[in-house]
Amino acid sequence: MTTTTITIITVMTTSIDPRLLQLASPALPVGAYSYSGGLEAAVEAGIVKDAASAQRWIDDVLEFALARMEAPILLRMMKDIGQWNDFFLASRETAELRAETLQMGFSLNKLLPALGLERLEMEEVSFPAAFAHAASSWGIEPQDALTAYLWSWIENQVMAAIKAVPLGQTDGQRMLLFLGTRLEETVGRASALKDEDLGNFAPGLAVLSSQHETQYSRLFRS
How far apart are CA 148 and CA 184, in angstroms? Predict the structure, then answer.
């Protein structure tokens, strides 16, 4: 008697929703390219002066600001936008940073009907609120939405560094390659944070953002 063993190999593939890629694309018309989020002021102060210091700056802001406040709040906004939108706006340290998220949020919220989605009927809409609303309306998983959101932020920061320092395109790609490896850890940490643990402590960013408001020569609006 001969026994035949048949091995069935199942190949599992994960598909990426192209609508999520659209939300994270630099082609999204929300004006992200016009903001540096304080990085230009760090260049002016001499803190960021080359590729290594630019990467360190972006990594620190990701670690001490986004990972502990903006990222976990976006996850919460996937379920409850109203309360967390107000909380997020109150957490912006300077007028420029608040104006940045409001302008980008307004632009994305205005675009939503053209994408087949309802607008958020709120007086002031932050960018993460509009982003979370679009992602949740399309049934995108919160962790996937956050990963795309953070990648979009990193990409914009690197592009700002390329223009402001200035840096070469190869430097920018090396920075993206490294910073991209930080996404999984950042999303995991944001997912585990409890409400009482939320908080961003980046006083250097706040001070430099305040100084940028009166900086004599600048390329960016923040």
Answer: 11
